[in-house]
Amino acid sequence: xxxxxxxxxxxSGHRRLAVTEPLPVRLLLIVIALLFLGLVLVVPLAAVFxxxxxxxxxxxxxxxxxxxxxxxxxxxxxxxxxxxxxxxxFGVSAAWAIAKFQFRGKNLLITLIDLPFAVSPVxxxxxxxxxxxxxxxxxxxxxxxxxxxxxxxxxxxxxxIFVTFPFVARELIPLMESQGTDEEESAMxxxxxxxxxxxxxxxxNIKWGLLYGVILCNARxxxxxxxxxxxxxxxxxxxxxxxxxxxxxxxxxxFVAAFAVASLLAALAxxxxxxxxxxxxxxHRDAAPRPEPGEHPA
Amino acid sequence: MSIQAxxxxxxxxxxxxxxxxxIDFPSGQLVALLGPSxxxxxxxxxxxxxxxxxxxxxxxxxxxxxxxxxxxxxxxGFVFQHYALFRHMTVFDNxxxxxxxxxxxxxxxxxxxRDRVFSLLKLVQLDWLATRYPSxxxxxxxxxxxxxxxxxxEPKVLLLDEPFGALDAKVRKxxxxxxxxxxxxxxxxxxxxxHDVEEALEVxxxxxxxxxxxxxxxxxxxxxxxRPATPFVRxxxxxxxxxAVQERRQRELATPIQLASPV
Lengths: 298, 263
Hints:
Chain A is mainly α. Chain A is built from 14 helices and no strands. Chain A has helices at 2-11, 23-52, 56-65, 67-100, 106-118, 121-132, 139-144, 153-164, 166-179, 182-189, 194-223, 226-232, 242-251, 255-287. In chain A, α4 (67-100) packs parallel to α9 and α6 (121-132) packs across α8 (153-164). The two termini of chain A are 31 Å apart. Chain B is an alpha/beta fold. Chain B has helices at 41-49, 91-100, 110-123, 139-152, 169-186, 197-203, 221-226, 231-236, 242-254, and strands at 3-12, 15-25, 30-34, 56-61, 64-65, 76-79, 157-161, 189-194, 206-211, 214-219. Chain B is globular, with a radius of gyration of 18 Å. The A-B interface holds A 182-183, 185-193, 196, 200-201, 204-205, 286, 288-292, 295-298 and B 49-51, 70-78, 80, 82, 84-88, 97-98, 101-102, 132-133, 135-140, 149-150, 152-153, 167-168, 171, 262-263.
């Protein structure tokens, strides 16, 4: 912002823009922002990687191919592989319904979608224990049928789905609302059925927003700690996801291994940011008008 | 194809958009639904197209009850005020859309679709823009593409919702003359919505004056001007110089159309 403003200032000669601050103020603001970012974000991120590599690449590699670590990575991937597609379908359906139709209870649905953001993840985990645990409401029924949900993979998947389900819907609702229903109506009048309208008109218009939501949803699904911690039971090699595995290793003073696994999660976060930026850039490029030489749009 | 609306009623909450409206649109004519905003003209158009369902009443196409037919099965062409082109498709793909979504057995071959799209592009004088995206076109060009897209499926009825409302005055005048001439060529039953009295008088065969969800008068431009049926019609058309409009209409329709491109 400061850069943009000062450039405009120079370009327009000696005219002073009303929003321009004196140089010292601008510098102060930039320095405060950078210091804060460095202290809160960059230093911890660097610490993760430096701790992980403190005893060299061999120790780092060994921590990652440890059977329990591999089991944790596999479980994390499995959880995300189930939770993300389900939330993709749910998010698109919910956003479609909310943005394109008027119906009773719409505001309630919007509020419910936000619920996981409002509730502490630990509480959402506890709700599942209360529902499906041995002493929970459905506990006896499940035990009779020998179905284990809490302290097993289904519980972890359920808790992850709950925590991550707003991401896709929240990303799409404002986008779809701003696009309106004109193009869908055009498609219908031209003879397209529901599927054709969705896949050929709606989906291409929301693809970048959708991808963005999926990326965020995936990052959260893989990184979720609180809710999963409550329902997991922390059984090594069986019900530990990567964040839980990091906690166990850390509590055992096995710092190199803990930070090695943590570095994978940090790398995932960085990758998410890179993809997010690429998506934003592409979406922006698609949205921008593309006038060609000789063209004079009225 | 003729269109009949019988006792159409539509409310939005407590607002009565259409109050027991009955009207016949004879085959092959260009009809203007004229009225102030909120008079129900766009709602009537959307009910004919199937985009909106009436609370009561029936719609007949050529005497056949079409009230419960889906928008996609009504074979109407619809042109939206803000064009509603598919923004991620080229002009070519936009116009071809109606043909490519047909069930496989009715779908023309790729080559036929191509020929049809290019003949439509020629018709709207935009064949040099086939590979552009809607965002690269001017308003007038977009509206002509929207018209070509609507005509691609050979609709039996063409419905236009304030087709020139979003265009600037010069382009609007050129395009409405062009629409009149296009209609004289293809003779598809057409209904267009407008709140612009001059536009209705200049273009339409028949004018339907609407107000407060009801029809005030149906007649030729001359009839509604010289023999207004209600005080509302008299008031609404009071500023118009009919002779000047008719003279202009004669003159403009006599001369070959010159669409300054790009419009």
